[in-house]
Amino acid sequence: MRIGRRSRIGTDPKELRAELDEILKFEDRPDSVCGAACQKPDPKSCSRSCLDIPKILSSDPEKFPLEARIAPLVYEMKRLGVFEPCWSCEGHSKPDGSLWKSPQVWFYAHSVVHLRVLANGIKELHLSEKLSVPWQIRVTFSDADNAETTFSLQPRIGPGHAGLASLRKDIDAIVLALREQVLVEALKLSRQFS
After folding, report:
1. How many domains does the chain have?
2. Cα distance between residue 128 and residue 100, in whole Å
3. 177, part of any domain
């Protein structure tokens, strides 16, 4: 069976381009990530390596700062301007060294097309052998009293996986390439609707 195109009333290429432009034309400023919470005298010095990021990007900085190994990825996702990270985990091992919790970032998305370009960008990183395992976008939810749909960026772990150390290297690779890769994928898709 061939996958047919879905015909939807109201689908407008202009709307799709506008959603892609949210990524392509987003002004990359440090205050777009940290906002008024940044206490630096020169906000231009802000970056994913700022030691204040774990507290600045947390909704409860004193009780629940972001874990240090995942904070740069949270920063980079928020830096794209179309995702709102809302929960994260840097990953944890059991006492025997096996994986207990995988690293992941949960987030809200402005549009399904934004999820598509994120997923495509992450897939390209894996195809170029920069990641030890494929990473995926999953639909999830946060709490029973929150009707909003959230998504997670997380590794797809199969049997024989090397462990947390390789997943943390994946985090580093994603952090370094995320913005550029998502912009490339958004531009590719935008060209299809020009």
Report:
1. 1
2. 27
3. yes
